[in-house]
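User: I'm preparing a small set of examples for a lab meeting where we compare how different chains pack in three dimensions. I only have the primary sequence for this one, and I'd like the structure in token form so I can line it up with the others. Please keep the answer compact; I'll paste it straight into my notes.
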Amino acid sequence: HPERGSIHSFGMAVDLTLLDPQGSEVDMGSGFDEMTLASHPDHEAEHLALGALTAQHLVERGWLRAAMREAGFHGIATEWWHFDFGDRVAVRRDLPRVL
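Assistant: Understood. Below is the structure token output for the 99-residue chain.
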């Protein structure tokens, strides 16, 4: 939504993944920025049952979500890698765009 600006444009959202000790991305079951249902946290149980995701994928995603929650961020239903800090409406209303 270019007219409103992404919450990233306000410095209040991040996209990230986990790295292993060698610096390689951890397998999260779908690619970073992969826009498929397998990327949706709200469809994880379904994709686990279908075999599209493994229990280990869900463990890794859970670790990422737990770390981000502890830091004050919250995830969204459609991207395992996206985390917001603050309320989207309040951010757009109260903060200046930085990008």
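A couple of notes for your slides: The longest helix spans residues 55-70. Strands lie at 13-15, 74-75, 82-84.

User: Perfect, thanks.
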